[in-house]
């Protein structure tokens, strides 16, 4: 008997997927809303661009402690409570970012906005750890990778929206520093309204959609003890972490990299959005292949290698008057880099089953934040203080990509789900 005839499928699963995807995108909108307009934001708040970078880096920092808490909440209290907490922190954080604008003192303004950014950052793991849990609880085996992919890539889609709309609002639609206020207020309204969608989330359907969904999963503590000693999972966490760290760093510093090469903030915005747009295509292709053939180990080897090639390409062509080559290299980076998500996240669940999906996916994302923090700070320190050139930082990202690709070739392990 096939899975489709043995288990029921509920149409509402697609609504659940849409809600979680939308909330993840909204959270990423807050994450990178300042990065593509870093020079303008620095003038608006009367701080250095290093502090504007911190508005993005704080998401990586908060993910580490909040990641443990969110994994526990997801495993112990379920999908619904985790999503509501994440949406609440995100919505309140967005409004604090706006409330800071009511102060005439730019430093007070920045302090309140930074606090709001911290709240939204604390909400991120409650949302970002949820897709793997949703995929197993609500979707049949033939759709799990696609569901996980669609919910997970909504985070970088939100980042793309930030990279595109922030420069448009700040530098095009509302010229001058007033555009900063318009941007922060607009995003706060979006976060507040979308937060109510979390109330639509349900923990699980009336009956399981697959055999895996029927199984009793390990608790958080027991699962934690198992995953930290399984070498192939630990290797995957490190490899994926380096790759995600490269992505987080590049999206954070992209405007600074390009403006130092005489491109505009608007150029940085549409090129960053291009990474995500083309990347979505790569993620869809990867999810289709993964769902059909379930060759997770082989997929991560191929995709990590392709991502390295794209990183090298960008590091070479990121020079003045090379718009076509720069855009092409970033598109290839997105195409290959985003393909990693469905293959790697599903492989993590396969390697660690019956450990809860929230635990296995949570440590993957957490690793990416740790590497992102390290790479972003080091890249910032490598910026030429006079010319603002960040070529050396790009070569650091390339070297990290080499390590990522090499480690991926040692990735093996049995599929247990």
Descriptive account of the structure:
This protein is mostly helical and 417 residues long. It has helices spanning 3-6, 12-31, 38-45, 49-77, 79-99, 106-128, 130-138, 144-152, 154-173, 178-195, 211-214, 220-227, 231-259, 265-293, 296-317, 323-352, 357-381, 391-408.
Overall mean pLDDT stands at 87
Q: Quick one: biggest sheet?
A: none
Number of helices: 18
Q: Categorize the overall geometry.
A: globular
- Assign a percent range to the helix content: over 70%
Helix and strand run = HHHHHHHHHHHHHHHHHH
Unreliable stretches, pLDDT < 50, 5 or more residues? none
Distance between the termini: 18 Å
Counted beta strands = 0
Beta content comes to under 5%
What is the C-alpha radius of gyration, as a whole number of Å?
20 Å
Structural class: mainly alpha
Concise account of the structure shown:
With 417 residues, this protein is an all-alpha fold. It has 18 helices and no strands.
SSE blueprint:
Elements: H1 3-6, H2 12-31, H3 38-45, H4 49-77, H5 79-99, H6 106-128, H7 130-138, H8 144-152, H9 154-173, H10 178-195, H11 211-214, H12 220-227, H13 231-259, H14 265-293, H15 296-317, H16 323-352, H17 357-381, H18 391-408
Helix pairs in contact: 2-5, 2-6, 2-7, 2-8, 2-9, 2-10, 3-4, 4-5, 4-6, 4-17, 5-6, 5-10, 7-8, 8-14, 8-16, 9-10, 9-14, 13-14, 13-16, 13-17, 13-18, 14-16, 15-16, 15-18, 16-17, 17-18
